[in-house]
Q: What sequence folds into this?
């Protein structure tokens, strides 16, 4: 290691809009994937906003509450939920629409929040795993079904599956086992607990029929 | 009396948290002033770093610091460093940057100039073994270990070893290790039938759902880390070792782990990296590991290029097994997979004569580690179709030939012919055949329905099911509840709850009065087994049983002291300690806990057994005075090794026009001793078998041999099974025969289903193809279709990563 030259001396700090844009051009891969990276509030004041870009301070309807939040144009809903609204129940398993761990409901429909821009969901009703149970703590029929059936192993996929089950019972409260599997096929469980997950889904449908 | 909990389903104590968003995994924690890290990963499979210029990155607004290999403890070859100046696989971390947010850190990484000198690289162990083949490491291509020497060596075979091998057969030069039982040549000589095949098993990434993200900060000289690990207490011990620090100065929070499968057994270099970066920049640091990064740094199962020759007498008994395994070791360490594979084969078939030869060769591909049933899953998935082939040639039923060769409890295992605690694979085969309906289904073998042909498969898969000698730590508090402190991990097996049942049942407590304490080392953990290798249900029902036995004795002594008579005259039940002959005379456990505190000494944890591990001692001492404290080491006798078994049976349909494979039905049956938690056991059997399906049919790597770079890096290019890839209603069963050498009778079950699932599919596919063993995994659609159509195969015979 002796012959390696390592320069960790920053020299004078210089920052200008011009050097930033040059950096963006040079940065290639990192910037092309920047929607999947989290940009915190720390540098917001220093960041230039491109012409014609959308307003950053927006109101989101999340779990029945109106939340004011500062959102960058390329920010994904998963990042806004996890890093700005403190809703860490929504998980990131793959960053790009391969696993479904980040599934949330938007106007009752299950979506991958890693693959939606936060600006797309202005004015729409967003429900996350934290907002599924009633305010008094009563579990949603899907959650109760999971308790009844002892569902999931590591459960990192569970919030996403539970949201997909909630969307399923709302549209098809009397599915066959095969229909339930199709409804949940956008979610991946690496523990392979699919049999128990399907038991939960069928129980959830049953509970939602009896409580509806 | 309280209802016994062993054998019945419970709601795991952490379940509601997991489905309401309250469960916090490593990436869910925040700390005041937290900043983000991003790693710079090697773009080359093997290179030397000549120069790093981070000056432009460090001038960026919001960039706080850069950690390089110069900042981390050095390790000796072939151990894996935390950061490196000689990356040995594409994707290896060279440095890490901390910045106020993740995007800034990523931009900073892009602005760091790293001058790399490319070095020779090896992707294929067989190429590295050629006389002029490349070595993955500058120091050689194998790590040699014998009684006297541990060193890197260059291991090459002669040109004649390659030229002399028939086309498509594994060349077999000088092995690096070998063992024999009897005389394999004589065994094969006695055989009436011989099967012989070259076998190719892929390497594959673990890919737990939760990537190994980590958050670390330092406070008052102590390091606090929020990590994703399989084993809480042992992760703390190994991370302390990695950082060369006192375990007392390390707080590890690991309450939830989003899957590991062997890839997160203890500390991972990224944990140390995050901790050291936090120390360097003086801020809490979050390293959010992406799926793309997890593919590189997240560990993988070693692939095999192997050869097997089996001899059978006309009655089906295996007379000889000759096995050669070339193991793909990746760039670091020394995996035991090949050894374990040979041991598992010896146990499964009890050959009268056996020889094992092998060599484990370094390659410039991601680091290997144990993956659920390491070695066992590979060898069972590959050998079971050969057993089928022999059964066909001998005109035997495929279940019957396995039943004949499988051991009973007086069987043996491994090169030293070690004894077993108990084994019932024959009974498991019988039960599986009954549940699956083997007799009826086998009649459909090879039948066609339109373009689809049916195949029936069976796999018999054992794996080690338990260790001994760990500590249990319990407190009965003045609230009358039993607090079971667990140092094992929480990765979804429900072990934290299920091993606690040994204590609650012995103390006759209702499950509602049991509080499981786990995951945060600040809440005091006993020295524990790693949560790996199917150890915990065995190791920690024993440890908790030992601690509960001690607690019961203390309760009896307290009662006798206060209420008179002999301690042995007292019994526990329904939250009380009472005189057996006069149940009205007694006290509640809550009162006994108060009395323990008043009495002090051994009763409340101020005096401890001498044989406890230092970690347990420290934890018990911290808990001293909080109630009746019981800390005990598992010293129960145990003779022989403990193995569990799973039988998998599958019916598949293969579309002969497209090569598409559908798994129609599946049954898994376990011999794993006493059933502690039926629903969780079913989930382990099915889940493990489904991971085996992924091995058998879909997950793989693809490498460009010219540049040494991988292409299959994400879920969609190397897909684990999804919910539509598995049968809708798989069935299961368990023998529920207690193991006689452990108090609760339970053996582990995590590992064995993987080989059973993989082998049931490789066996069923061979059956559907009329007995033709493709002898490689994964059996992707193109591989199957080429076999059906007899067209050119999409791979060369010994080729991997295609």
A:
């Amino acid at each position: 290691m002796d012959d390696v030259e390592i320069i960790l001396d920053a020299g004078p700090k210089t920052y200008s809009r011009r050097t930033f844009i040059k950096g963006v051009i040079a940065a290639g891969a990192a910037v092309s994937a920047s929607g999947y990276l989290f940009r915190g509030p720390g540098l917001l004041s220093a960041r230039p906003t491109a012409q014609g870009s959308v307003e950053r301070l927006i109101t989101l309807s999340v779990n029945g509450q109106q939340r004011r939040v500062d959102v960058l144009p390329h920010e994904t809903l998963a990042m806004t939920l996890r890093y700005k609204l403190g809703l860490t129940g929504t998980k990131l398993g793959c960053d790009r629409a391969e696993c479904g761990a980040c599934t949330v409901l938007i106007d009752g429909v299950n979506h991958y929040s890693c693959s939606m821009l936060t600006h797309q969901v202005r004015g729409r009703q967003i429900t996350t795993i934290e907002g599924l149970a009633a305010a008094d703590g009563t579990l949603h029929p899907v959650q109760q079904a999971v308790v009844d059936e002892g569902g999931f192993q590591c459960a990192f996929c569970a919030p996403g599956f539970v949201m997909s089950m909630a969307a399923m019972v709302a549209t098809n409260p009397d599915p066959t086992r095969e229909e339930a599997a199709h409804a949940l096929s956008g979610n991946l469980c690496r523990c392979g607990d699919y049999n128990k997950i399907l038991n939960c889904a069928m129980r959830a449908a049953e509970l939602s029929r009896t409580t509806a | 009396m309280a209802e016994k909990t062993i054998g019945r389903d419970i709601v795991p104590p952490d379940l509601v948290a997991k489905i309401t968003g309250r469960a916090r995994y490593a990436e869910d924690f925040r700390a005041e002033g937290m900043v983000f890290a991003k790693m710079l990963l090697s773009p080359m499979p093997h290179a030397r770093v000549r120069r790093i210029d981070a000056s432009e990155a460090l001038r960026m607004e919001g960039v706080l610091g850069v950690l390089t290999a110069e900042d981390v403890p050095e390790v000796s070859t072939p151990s894996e460093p935390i950061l490196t100046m000689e990356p040995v696989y594409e994707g290896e971390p060279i440095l890490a940057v901390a910045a106020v947010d993740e995007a800034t850190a990523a931009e900073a990484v892009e602005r760091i100039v790293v001058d790399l000198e490319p070095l020779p690289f090896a992707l294929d162990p067989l190429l590295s073994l050629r006389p002029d083949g490349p070595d993955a490491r500058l120091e050689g291509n194998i790590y040699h270990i014998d009684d006297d020497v541990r060193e890197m060596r260059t291991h090459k075979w002669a040109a004649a070893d390659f030229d002399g091998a028939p086309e498509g057969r594994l060349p077999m030069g000088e092995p690096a290790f070998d063992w024999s039982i009897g005389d394999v040549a004589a065994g094969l000589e006695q055989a009436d039938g011989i099967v012989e095949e070259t076998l190719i098993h892929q390497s594959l990434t673990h890919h737990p759902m939760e990537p190994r993200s980590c958050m670390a900060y330092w406070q008052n000289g102590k390091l606090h880390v929020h990590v994703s690990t399989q084993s809480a207490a042992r992760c703390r011990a190994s991370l302390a070792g990695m950082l060369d620090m006192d375990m007392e100065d390390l707080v590890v929070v690991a309450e939830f782990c989003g899957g590991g499968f062997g890839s997160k057994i203890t500390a991972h270099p990224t944990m140390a990296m995050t901790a050291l970066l936090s120390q360097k920049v003086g801020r809490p640091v979050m390293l959010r590991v992406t799926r793309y990064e997890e593919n590189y740094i997240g560990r993988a199962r070693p692939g095999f290029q192997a050869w097997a020759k089996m001899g059978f007498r006309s009655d089906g008994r295996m007379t000889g097994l000759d096995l050669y395994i070339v193991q793909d070791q990746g760039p670091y360490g020394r995996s035991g997979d090949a050894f374990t594979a040979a041991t598992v084969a010896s146990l499964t078939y009890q050959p009268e004569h056996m020889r094992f030869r092998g060599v484990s060769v370094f390659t410039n591909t991601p680091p290997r580690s144990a993956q659920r049933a390491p070695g066992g899953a590979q060898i069972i998935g590959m050998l079971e179709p050969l057993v089928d082939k022999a059964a066909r040639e001998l005109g035997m039923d495929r279940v019957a030939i396995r039943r004949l060769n499988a051991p009973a409890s007086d069987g043996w295992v491994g090169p030293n012919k070690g004894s077993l605690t108990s084994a019932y694979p024959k009974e498991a085969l019988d039960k599986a055949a009954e549940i699956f309906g083997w007799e009826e289904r086998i009649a459909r073998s090879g039948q066609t329905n339109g373009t689809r042909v049916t195949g029936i498969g069976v796999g018999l898969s054992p794996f080690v099911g338990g260790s001994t000698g760990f500590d249990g730590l319990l407190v009965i508090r003045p609230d009358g509840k039993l607090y079971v402190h667990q140092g094992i991990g929480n990765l979804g097996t429900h072990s934290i709850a299920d091993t606690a049942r040994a204590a609650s049942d012995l103390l006759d407590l209702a499950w509602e009065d049991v509080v499981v304490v786990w995951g945060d080392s600040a809440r005091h953990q006993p020295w524990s087994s790693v949560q790996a290798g199917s150890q915990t249900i065995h190791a920690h029902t024993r440890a908790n049983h030992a601690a509960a036995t001690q607690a019961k004795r203390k309760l009896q002594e307290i009662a006798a002291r206060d209420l008179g008579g002999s301690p042995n005259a007292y019994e526990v039940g329904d939250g009380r300690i009472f005189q057996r002959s006069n149940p009205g005379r007694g006290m509640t456990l809550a009162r006994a806990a108060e009395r323990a505190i008043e009495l002090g000494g051994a009763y409340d944890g101020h005096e401890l057994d001498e044989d406890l591990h230092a970690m347990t001692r420290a934890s018990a001492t911290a808990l001293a005075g909080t109630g009746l404290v019981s800390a005990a080491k598992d010293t129960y006798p145990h003779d022989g090794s403990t193995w569990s078994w799973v039988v998998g049976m599958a019916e598949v349909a293969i579309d002969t026009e497209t090569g598409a494979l559908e798994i129609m039905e599946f049954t898994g049956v376990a011999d794993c001793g006493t059933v502690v938690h039926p629903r969780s056991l079913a989930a382990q059997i099915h889940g493990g078998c489904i991971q085996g399906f992924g091995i058998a049919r879909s997950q793989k790597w693809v490498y460009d041999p010219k540049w040494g770079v991988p292409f299959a890096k994400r879920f969609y290019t190397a897909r684990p099974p999804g919910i539509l890839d598995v049968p809708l209603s798989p069935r299961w069963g368990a023998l529920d025969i207690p193991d006689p050498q452990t108090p609760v009778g339970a053996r582990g079950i995590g590992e064995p289903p993987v080989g059973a699932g993989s082998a049931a599919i490789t066996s069923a596919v061979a059956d559907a193809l009329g007995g033709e063993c493709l002898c490689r995994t994964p059996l992707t659609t193109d591989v199957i279709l080429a076999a059906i159509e007899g067209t050119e195969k999409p791979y060369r015979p010994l080729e991997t990563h295609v």
